[in-house]
Amino acid sequence: MRMRSHPLAMLVLASLAPGSDPALAAGDVERGREIAAACSACHGPDGSSPSPTFPVLGGQHQEYLVQALLAYQAGTRADSIMGGAVQTLSRQQLEDVAAYFAAQKGLTGGLAGTRPAGAAPAAGGGMTASLSTIDAAGSLADLRAPAPSPVELAACPGKGSLTRDRDGDGLADAHDAAPGDAGEFVRDADGDGWFAICNVQQLQAIQTLGTGEGQRTSLDLATRNARRYELVQDLDLGAIASWVPVGNCGPEKNCMVARDRYGFAGALDGNGHTLRNLTVNQPEGGGVGMFGTLARSGVVRNLNLENARVTGRGGVGALVGANFGYVADCQASVHVVGRLATGGLVGGHAGQVVNCHVSGEVSGQAAVGGLAGDMNGVVRDSSADVVVSAGKGVGGLVGLSTTGKVLNSRATGVVSGADNVGGLVGVNTDAMVENSFATGAVQGSGTNVGGLVGFNSQSRVLSSFATGVVAGKDAVGGLIGRNNGAVRNVYSTAAASLIGDNAGGSIDATP
Ligand code: HEC
After folding, report:
1. Which of 59, 122, 240, 393 sits in a 20 to 30 Å window from 152, CA-based?
2. Is the CA virtual torsion 153, 156, 158, 162 positive or negative?
3. Residues with Cβ within 8 Å of residue 223, at least 6 apart in sequence
4. What number of other Cβ atoms are within 10 A of residue 74's Cβ?
5. Taking the C-alpha atoms of 436, 439, 440 and 443 in order, what is their torsion angle to the nearest 10 degrees?
6. Given the CA of residue 94, which atom of ligand 1 is nearest to it?
7. Hey, whose CA ends up nearest to atom 15 of ligand 1?
8. Largest Cα span, the chain
9. H/E stretch holding 287
10. Are the beta carbons of 205 and 183 closer than 8 angstroms?
11. Domains located in the chain, CATH noted
12. Distance between CA atoms of 422 and 411, rounded to whole angstroms?
């Protein structure tokens, strides 16, 4: 079992450089350093404890740390050690110590030394930065369009010719907010800093303006991809046979090299509107979705996808193929087909998904999940009601989570595969699931099949449960198929034993 050896390690998730973010400086790193001295006995001086018993804090996302510490203090996350450790700290001190650990290097060399022989090696330094790379999540979460203004809708184009393109930028006059200016295609009529997207053609032109045969524009792609946009009405994309994803892997079409460099780095606020009938058809493509790649600074929020049909090869998701950014407050009904790193909402996921809900069907080969395929990011307050079928690393919510976090989330769809199949998460490696559950039936033809998690490797599962019927060949558990991580405050209602194979794992039934 070498989960990290498969080739998608990783389409998008390899060696992210740690981000630093001044906007998150609610806590003070230097003050935090002093407080952290009291934590070092267990978590290590830089938060990269060598023992799997003590979670790695270094490089962890700051907001996450604050939330965890507040939960310990309030007792909503019950842990006698941690409850005591944070009891006397003020809110400001929690912020400070979180800032300190968030600024540390993270997993580098951390858990690797303690891994039992034969277990998956650390991913060649690859995942080390993990959550520290989630850029500016605090400020990204705040980035939203002001309430929609009627001025925007009134200023939408529509009166011009449907066939004539005066400025030659590829948008017919009727769709172009600036039909006489090849350097502009959208308007910010109310001056709030958000450009109105009035029609499907403008939405597509973020990526394709001026790129067709004989077309031109002076508004370059990088500029278009860094702007803030808002939808001013629902749109039907049904007339576009195959959408060109917004943001991608660059001219070389190589995401391993480009990472998020050519991703959409601006913001799209859907204002609660719906995009219907999106079709993206790139069976051999990487980074395939409405957005191909969403960059670290990218934000997509408050958007619904209805009947999105997306086909790709690796990094495939209805909303985002390869996500490094922040996706929040969304709903999607999907039909997604991929091979690797394929998810209902996001394919490869190194960012954050918050309060998103997906329904439909997802299928592929490896690292396939109802919401996310292959992730080292965060999924929070989200759900998938998705029928998921694939080969290895298959989960109702997430296929493969390496250092990822699934919090307050659920999966309710039927999940089937061969090995490493879980109702919620297929494989957890150095990862965490907390306050989450799965209710779907789970069917694996091979090994490591669990109602919640297929293979829980060096990972934690806390305060979570599963109620689905589970069937498999080897290492089959109502909650977890194979476990060598730490499990606490859990249950399952399946006839199968709680954990199929618990060699090296610890279970603590107390909350
Ligand atoms: C005596 C050992 C010990 C000390 C001292 C300690 N911790 Fe912990 N910490 C733990 C253990 C064990 C856990 C795992 C608890 C759990 O599973 O919920 C933990 C969990 C955490 C988590 C949650 C991590 C996650 O990934 O969810 C945070 C955050 C944390 N500790 C911060 C701190 C801070 C800050 C201090 C110092 C003020 C501190 N800890 C001191 C043992 C310790």
Report:
1. 240
2. negative
3. none
4. 11
5. 80
6. 35
7. 79
8. 71
9. strand 286-288
10. no
11. 3-142 (1.10.760.10), 221-508 (2.160.20.110)
12. 10
Length of the chain measured in residues: 511
Cβ of 87: how many Cβ atoms within 10 Å? Answer: 9
Judge contact between 406 and 379, C-beta under 8 A: yes
Instruction: Tell me how far apart the alpha carbons of residues 176 and 169 are, in angstroms, rounded to a whole number.
Output: 9
- Give Cα separations from 440 to 147, 298, 493, 499 (angstroms): 38, 33, 12, 17
Structure tokens at 322: 């390869």
Sign of the four-CA dihedral 168, 174, 180, 184: negative
Q: Which helix (H) or strand (E) holds 43?
A: helix 40-43
Over residues 378-430, the pLDDT tens digits come to: 999 999 999 999 999 999 999 999 999 999 999 999 999 999 999 999 999 99
* Residue 273: pLDDT band with limits 50, 70, 90: very high
Nearest to 453 by CA among 473, 482, 475, 430: 482
Tokens of 394: 């298959």
Return the ∠ at Cα 426 (arms to 275 and 469), rounded to 5°. 95
- Claim: this prediction has a pTM higher than 0.90: no
- 424 alpha carbon to ligand 1 midpoint, in Å? 25
Judge contact between 327 and 346, C-beta under 8 A.
yes
Cα-to-centroid distance, 82 and ligand 1 (Å): 5
Ligand 1 atom 27: residue of nearest CA: 68
Residue 146 burial (CB count, 10 A): 12
